[in-house]
Design a protein that fits this description.
Length: 421
C-alpha cells in the first residue's frame, strides 16, 4: 500500500482509496486523514528525535479528535494538553493519566483540581502566581497526588515563524524568565506539597531551523545543571514541540537534524527528555476536500469559489499560511493565477491566494494539502456553517470519526428568552 496522499492513475488517493470516491460518499467540505501516515510520522519522529532517550507527548491542541488520540495512545504516545477539556479528551481516548502533561499559561482552579484529582503526570506552571495556586490547591486536597509540578521557562529566543505562533521571546506571555526560574523551582522543590517534575520550554510552532531549538535547550540545561549542583532533583526536561513541515512541496521536515541537535545539547546527560510534537505528526496526514461551486474570472486572475471556507480551515486567514491546493482528478489546461475562496462574507475568507491551477469547473474536487494539524480543531460555525465531517482511512476502510453536524444542531444551541416569545 502507498501510505498517505498520492496521485495514482490521475487521481489523488489516500492509502490507495480515491478521494473522489470518499467525497462522493461523505460529501464536502470534508477532512480526510490517513492512520498509516500518522503512524509513519510517529515512527519517524520517535526514531530520529526520541531515539530511546525521550518520549512523545502528542500536542492534543493540533488535532483532538478522539479517534486520532486513541490511535496515538495505542502507538505509545503520551499527551500534552492545554485545557480541562483536552484532559477529558485525552483520558477518554485512553492515555494513561501519568502520561499526560498539562501545559498552558492560564489554568483555572477547576482545571488544576481536576488534573490533581485525575493524577495526571505533570502540570507545567508558567508564573509565580500559578505555582502558588497549584501549591495551595494541592495542599487543600489534603492527600498526596502522583502529579508533579514542572516549570516552563521563557528562554528569550527568536524564531523564524509567524509572530502569532512564536512563544519563546521575552515579550510573549509564555513561561518564566530564565533568571527567575531557579528560585521558583526551589519554591516547588521545598514546598513539601508536590514533587518537582523538571523544566519545560516551547518556543513556538512551524519552526524549520534547529538552531533556535538548540539555543532554547542550552538555556534550559543551564538552569537544570545549576539546580542539580545545588542538590535539587530535575528528573525531566520537556523540550516542547514546534518542528515545522514544508507546506509548499510536502517534503517532511528534517527530524534527523532535530535529533542531532538533541545529541549535541544533551549527550549522555542523565535527564529524561520529553517532546511535544503536534504538527509534525498530523499535518501531512490530512487533507481538506472542497468542491468548486463557481469559477469567476476577474482582472488578471480567476476566483474558484469553493464550498470550504475560513470557518473550516482558518490557517490561511489567521497566519497567512500557504497550503498546496490540487485538483483531485487530473485536469487539463494551462495553469492560471487562481484565488481559492469560500462563501463566507469576508474578503479574508480564502483557502489560498495566487495559486497556479488549471481552469476549474463547477463540481471539481480540490484537495487542500497538509491540513491534518490545526485544521478541523480550529474550525468554527461562523455564518451558521456546520462543521466539516472527518474521515479516517484505517486498514483500507473510510471511517467517519465525527458526527455530521446539521444546521438544526446549531439552532438548538440558542435560547430565546420568555420576554421575546
Ligand atoms: C506547550 C506546547 N507544546 C507543544 C505544542 C505543539 O507544537 P507543534 O504542533 O508545532 O509541534 C504547542 C503548540 O504551539 C504548545 O503550545
Amino acid at each position: 500500500m502507498i501510505i498517505g496522499f498520492h496521485r495514482i492513475d490521475g487521481q489523488i488517493c489516500c492509502d490507495g482509496i480515491a478521494l473522489e470516491a470518499i467525497a462522493a460518499e461523505f460529501g464536502s467540505p470534508l477532512y480526510v486523514y490517513s492512520a498509516a501516515a500518522i503512524e509513519a510520522a510517529y515512527s519517524r519522529f520517535d526514531r530520529a528525535v526520541c531515539n530511546g532517550r525521550g518520549v512523545v507527548h502528542f500536542a492534543v491542541k493540533s488535532n483532538s479528535n478522539l479517534a486520532i488520540l486513541r490511535l496515538l495512545a495505542r502507538l505509545g504516545a503520551g499527551a500534552d494538553i492545554v485545557s480541562g477539556g483536552e484532559m477529558q479528551r485525552a483520558l477518554k481516548a485512553g492515555f494513561a493519566p501519568e502520561k499526560i502533561i498539562f501545559s498552558g499559561v492560564g489554568k483555572t482552579d477547576q482545571e488544576i483540581e481536576a488534573a490533581l484529582e485525575a493524577g495526571i503526570g505533570q502540570i507545567n506552571a508558567e508564573s509565580l502566581s500559578e505555582v502558588e495556586r497549584v501549591l495551595a490547591l494541592a495542599r487543600n486536597m489534603g492527600r498526596s497526588t502522583p502529579c508533579r509540578l514542572g516549570l516552563r521557562i521563557n528562554p528569550d529566543v527568536a524564531t523564524d515563524t509567524h509572530a502569532k505562533i512564536s512563544t519563546g521571546k521575552s515579550d510573549t506571555k509564555f513561561g518564566v524568565p530564565a533568571a527567575e526560574a531557579a528560585d521558583l523551582y526551589r519554591l516547588i522543590a521545598t514546598s513539601g506539597v508536590i514533587e518537582p517534575a523538571g523544566l519545560a520550554v516551547h518556543i513556538g510552532s512551524q519552526i524549520m531551523d534547529e538552531a533556535p531549538f538548540e539555543a532554547a535547550w542550552i538555556a534550559l540545561l543551564d538552569i537544570a545543571e545549576g539546580l542539580r549542583e545545588d542538590g535539587f532533583d530535575v528528573p525531566m526536561l520537556d523540550l516542547g514541540g514546534g518542528l515545522g513541515i514544508d507546506y509548499r512541496d510536502g517534503t517532511p521536515a528534517d527530524a534527523d537534524a532535530l535529533g542531532a541537535a538533541v545529541t549535541r545539547v544533551f549527550g549522555n546527560r542523565p535527564y529524561r527528555l520529553g517532546f511535544e510534537p503536534g504538527r509534525y505528526l498530523l499535518a501531512e496526514a490530512g487533507v481538506l476536500l472542497t468542491r468548486v461551486l463557481h469559477s469567476k474570472p476577474a482582472t488578471e486572475k480567476t476566483f474558484a469559489i469553493v464550498d470550504g471556507a475560513m470557518n473550516d480551515l482558518i490557517r490561511p486567514t489567521l497566519y497567512e499560511a500557504w497550503h498546496r491546493i490540487e485538483p483531485v482528478s487530473d485536469t487539463a489546461g494551462a495553469v492560471q493565477p487562481t484565488d481559492i475562496v469560500g462563501p463566507v462574507c469576508e474578503t479574508g475568507d480564502y483557502l489560498g491566494l495566487g495559486h497556479s491551477l488549471p481552469p476549474l469547473q463547477r463540481g471539481d474536487l480540490l484537495a487542500v494539502r497538509s491540513a491534518g494539524a490545526y485544521g478541523a480543531v480550529m474550525r468554527s460555525n461562523y455564518n451558521t456553517r456546520p462543521f466539516a465531517a472527518e474521515i479516517l482511512i484505517i486498514n483500507g476502510e473510510a471511517r467517519p470519526i465525527s458526527v455530521q453536524q446539521t444546521v438544526a444542531d446549531l439552532l438548538a444551541q440558542d435560547r430565546i428568552p420568555p420576554e421575546l416569545q
